[in-house]
Write a structure and sequence with these properties.
Length: 268
């Protein structure tokens, strides 16, 4: 199965891509970022990023939604829809610190990333032998010790993302096309694959039909309403029907059928 790469059409102007669009290099001293071509919504994935050159405080790797502005550092308190391990050793979720203790990450370090998008949990480790989220007992294979993804909630498409903000800082992604430094956790896809696993279910939160009976045999539908909402903030591909209504009105002067049968006034 093919794997993703950095997206040349979804990057800051100061991020240059080389190496078959797997190497991202900062060409100026301002904050920038790049998302991958492909997103995922469900299932478990493992990939790695090597910080070839890491000197800037705004460097980070992780996930973001499709609309997050890449020129903002993940540490911004007003940002939502991201999770990133930053060079200072803290994990930021939606602009706030969700975990820490990784230590300052130096040039040459390999960041291993395991994400369970069904459970919406993520794990990071430094190098193939490091502890997941800094604790020896944490384990993506068993679901222990994962960091909650926050606004990247259920059915929100997530893209691998890298941020860098210092001239010549550089991050290389391994989305599965070459051998990994660390072992892939049991149950996880080896790499971040192309082609999203998108949920196909539709959620109807409210459906209403009203039926008023009279002796008049003429049935008249006066109003039919259907509303369909999706999330413009997240690029959510899951269809959600929030309200469907059918109203049937006839004469209000007669409320009981002549035959004396039961009157149904509302069906939910």
């Amino acid at each position: 199965m093919a794997n993703t790469r950095w997206n040349s059409a979804d990057r800051s102007a100061n991020i240059a891509l080389t190496g078959s669009d797997l190497i991202a290099t900062c060409t100026s001293g301002v904050q920038g970022g790049v998302r991958a071509v492909d997103k995922q919504v469900l299932n478990k994935f493992y990939w790695e990023c090597t910080w070839n050159v890491a000197t800037g405080g705004g460097a980070g790797v992780g996930l973001a939604n499709s609309l997050l502005v890449l020129s903002n550092a993940p540490t911004g308190s007003t940002l939502i829809g991201l999770c990133a391990l930053m060079r200072n050793g803290s994990v930021y979720v939606d602009g706030s610190i969700a975990a820490s203790g990784f230590g300052v990450i130096s040039s040459g370090a390999v960041i291993c990333i395991a994400v369970d998008l069904t459970a919406r949990l993520i794990w990071f480790r430094i190098g193939g032998g490091g502890n997941w989220n800094t604790v020896a007992s944490n384990n993506p294979a068993t679901g222990v010790g994962g960091i909650v993804l926050g606004a990247l909630g259920n059915a929100i498409p997530a893209y691998p993302t890298a941020w860098i903000n210092t001239l010549n800082d550089q991050i290389t992604a391994n989305f599965g096309d070459t051998a990994f430094t660390g072992a892939v956790p049991s149950g996880y896809t080896s790499g971040f694959t192309a082609g999203a696993s998108v949920p196909t279910n539709a959620l109807a939160s409210q459906a209403l039909a009203e039926h008023w009976l009279t002796t008049d045999p003429d049935a008249r539908i006066t109003q039919v309403v259907a509303e369909h909402w999706t999330s413009v903030a997240s690029g959510n591909l899951q269809a959600v029907v929030t309200f469907v209504a059918l109203e049937h009105w006839t004469s209000v002067a007669v409320v009981v059928p002549a035959a004396g049968g039961p009157m149904v006034t509302m069906i939910h």
